[in-house]
Amino acid sequence: MNSLLVAGTTSDAGKSVLVAAICRWLARRGSEVAPFKAQNMSNNSVVTASGGEIGRAQAVQAAAAGAEPDVRFNPVLLKPGSDRSSQVVVLGRVEGEVNALSYRRRKDVLLETVTDTLAELRAEYDYVICEGAGSPAEINLRAHDIANMGLARAAGLPVLVVGDIDRGGVFAQLFGTLALLDPADQALVSGFVVNKFRGEPELLEPGLDQLRALTGRKVHGVLPWSEELWLDAEDSLSYVADGVVGRPAPPLGSQWLRVAVPRLPRISNATDVEALAAEPGVSVRFVTEPSRLADADLVLLPGSKSTVADLAWLRETGLADGIRSHAASGLPVAGVCGGFQMLGERIVDHVESGGEVDGLGLLDIDVEFAASKALGNPSGTAMGHRVSGYEIHHGRVRRSGDLPALIRAAEGGEGAVHGSVVGTHWHGLFENDGFRREFLGWVADRAGRSGFLCSSETSFADLRRAQLDLLGDMVERHLDTGALMRLLDGGAPEGMSTLSARQH
Fold it and tell me: Which tens digit of pLDDT belongs to each residue from 95-142?
């Protein structure tokens, strides 16, 4: 035994964060650690060195563990293109589209893939920390589950259940999650973790004692709320419309720089904006209606899993007209991946969204979608600075007018610049510190924000490392690390109590 599964009472309960935290803690103890999420549903993804695609959360967990991202860390990735269908990525490669029913028919084969992959990792690493998906108490899905108790049963994993107390009702969530499981599943649930607690821990103790008495299981720790933890959200749903991203520091100069990011229905790799939000004096907001563009200095169109459908949404909401007016005023507009494609003249897509539509007409390019997906980790030069990023897209620029490229790479020019409008297919570009500073200076100049000063000291990589170290510190200070090691080394304790959903 060298593994455990972190399950959650709900989506966004803290599974991804807790897995990253345990990985960081173990790595700092000198252990070789790997994260593992059997099945992830997310449009936030990255490209590994081998050219395969995995969920971004698993790449962040790998960074916490000090490991190179590996397609085995997330063998099944579902990328929703609509409310009814998703692209399925298996061990880094696209294997078609599925809906809920057709995906269910593939689960037996995928369970074998998942368990074989986990077995490989367990043989290779000292510890493997697994993350569940959603909630293990989705009883309508249990028969075909490969990510929660289905995986735990197949691999004999002890399970920690984490609940988010900031949302309220955490004791009911923890008790109810356990009680809804069948006895064989309950036998693997080995304890609880309470996440995002604000206040005095002593006030929580009576509830923890009662939960222990009711369930026969301990709460192995209470993790405090931290304002500092905001990078690398697992799910795009974590980004609230009209909410400020991160914790913006006051401006170094006399003026703020305001960035508006349309909150597309099928937004992908929304984390691109986080490096901008890490800069002092830069306020980044996700927006859903055109009035929010009125005081923006920069409009940044993010990636999309359904470019044509999300472009239609921009038109329906009035944001499309607002973006064009913003550009017509000479104010900066930028697009990343799907957002870049929307800025062009024409989009031909018979792969993801279907159809042929006019773009926003701000860049003289035409985009056509190919069946194969472009995946890579390119590097080059942009605005006088060395840059690197990653590509995940079906759309290709098939025609480009006489526009200068934004990036010069070994393969040739990438992206486009026209006046105050820029675009690129590369994700992660703003994580390059030199380029980000140059870009923000360009935005400030175009927007007439002479009072904005860009920091020369912000290191996005250092900021991410600091957050990962904070997670490791939280495990050391707030979790029962002895109990954690006993689960990792010895598995689920024998003789755990069995609850009935009806007994109380």
Answer: 887 876 677 777 778 899 999 999 999 999 999 999 999 899 999 888
Longest alpha-carbon distance in the chain = 73
427 is catalytic: yes
For 357, counting Cβ atoms within 10 Å of its Cβ (0-12 exposed, 13-18 middle, 19+ buried), the class is middle
pTM of the model: 0.90
> In the block, which residue shows the tokens 């690197």?
388
> Cα–Cα distance between 480 and 484 in angstroms, integer?
6
Q: Give me the phi and psi of 226, to 5 degrees please.
A: -135, 125
Pair 409, 388: CB distance under 8 Å: no
Q: Is 502 helix (H, G, I), strand (E, B) or coil?
A: coil
Q: What is the pLDDT of residue 94?
A: 87
- Residue numbers in the chain where pLDDT is lower than 50: 503-504
For 3, the token pair is 């593994």
User: Reduced to 3 states, what is the DSSP secondary structure of residue 132?
Assistant: coil
Catalytic entry in 220, 326, 427, 478: 427
Is 144 an annotated catalytic residue? no
Q: Which one of 23, 130, 337, 454 is the catalytic residue?
A: 337
- The tokens for 148 are 């929660």
CB atoms < 10 A from the CB of 392, how many?
A: 22
